[in-house]
Amino acid sequence: MKELHLKELNKVIVKDEIEELIHAYVQCIDGDHLEEWPEFFTEDCLYQIISRENYEQNLPASIIYCDSKGMLKDRVTAHRQANIFEKHVYRHIVSSIRITNQEEDVYTVYTNYAVFQTRLNGYSEVYNVGKYIDTIVFENGQAKFKEKKVVYDSLVIPTLLVTPI
Fold first, then answer.
1. Is there a domain that residue 161 lies in?
2. Which of 32, 62, 70, 158 is most buried, with most CB under 10 Å away?
3. pLDDT tens per residue across span 125-141
4. Beta strand pairing status for 142-152 and 41-51?
């Protein structure tokens, strides 16, 4: 009985850690702390922003494809130094965080998201909507993304996508 209770308690702790990772991730982006963004990932990782249509047809074409933490850091550097875009802020809303699979210490997690974008003129709009399909592992007791696939439902992205979703 005690062993069963510990297993259930461990599930709750793992779920809380995964939810905290997802909430901290979107708060990092919304707060424009992009230099911290790569630290949510393992060294050998995948970050992909892909349309639902391409994802469902297993087509590789993505808007963004980074397959290492180094590439994520380069993305932040380009964002800060090379890209020219209209200033804006994001506000993420995430819901329905659900662990759908566990194999040993690797978790597959689905999360719905909506991103609102507000420009300096104060105009806000729905920017992007979809789901995260995450592969999450624990490194030194800390939850990290091994893979983060951002599968967007939106048919059109209204402006240049420079900030991670």
1. no
2. 62
3. 999 999 999 999 999 99
4. parallel
The pTM for the full model equals 0.91
CA–CA gap between residue 13 and residue 165 (Å, rounded): 26
Q: How far apart are CA 74 and CA 93, in angstroms?
A: 26
- Each residue's pLDDT tens digit, 51-67: 999 999 999 899 999 99
Q: Which domain holds residue 77?
A: 2-152
Question: Is position 119 within any domain?
Answer: yes
Question: What is the DSSP secondary-structure string of 4-36?
Answer: HHHHHHHHHHHHHHHHHHHHHHHHHHHTT-GGG
H helical segments located in 66-111: 69-81
Q: How many domains does the chain have?
A: 1
Q: What residues have CB less than 8 Å from 145, skipping those under 6 apart?
A: 21, 25, 40, 41, 42, 45, 47, 134, 135, 136
The CATH number covering residue 115 comes to: 3.10.450.50
Residue 164 forms part of a structural domain: no
